[in-house]
Amino acid sequence: MVRPAVVLGGLAAATVAVALRDPHVQGSWGVCPSAALGFSCPGCGCMRAVHDLTHLRLADAVSSNVLFVALLPVLVGLLGWWTVDRWRGVERGSTVLTTPLLVVGAMVLLGFAVLRNLPQFSYLAP
Question: What's the predicted TM-score (pTM) here?
Answer without folding.
Answer: 0.86
